[in-house]
Amino acid sequence: MVDDGDKKEGPADDPYGWYYKLPDEEKLSLAIASMRRSDARASGLEVLKKRFPSAPQAMLDSAVFHLYLELPRALRDLLAQIELSITKPEEHLHWGVTYEALYHLYNYLQLEALMPGA
Q1: How is the chain split into domains, by residue range?
Q2: Contacts by 58-64 with C-beta closer than 8 Å and gap 24+?
Q3: What is the dihedral of CA 36, 41, 44, 46, to 10 degrees?
Q4: How distant, in Å, are the alpha carbons of 41, 52, 60 from that of 56?
Q5: What is the DSSP code (8-state) at residue 5?
Q6: Which residues neighbour 82 within 8 Å (Cβ) at sequence distance 6 or greater?
Q7: Entry pTM
Q8: What is the pLDDT of residues 42-65, one digit of tens each?
């Protein structure tokens, strides 16, 4: 299924270096769990409130929408489209699917940069 042979290492001073060491199968399991999470809105809001305690509720709600609700679904769709473009070349990658994933990622990154205390 997934080949761990191309494992990448983060920079030595990267505080998230531990993530790069996770086996690919574990990353895949985490990604699937994220897409299946039924409490994504509440859990995501709790995480962001702790990270940005002085952020206005509207910003937090928008960030939760983009990061925890829509982005996982959009990335799933993008990955499915990528696979379909290989297995069914006549069904070339649809630009709208790519755009949607980028849209949600971009909007979350913009919100995070504007969050009080970011």
Answers
A1: 39-118
A2: 59/111, 59/114, 59/115, 62/107, 62/111, 63/108, 63/111, 63/112, 63/115, 64/40
A3: -130
A4: 16, 9, 6
A5: G
A6: 93
A7: 0.82
A8: 999 999 999 999 999 999 999 999
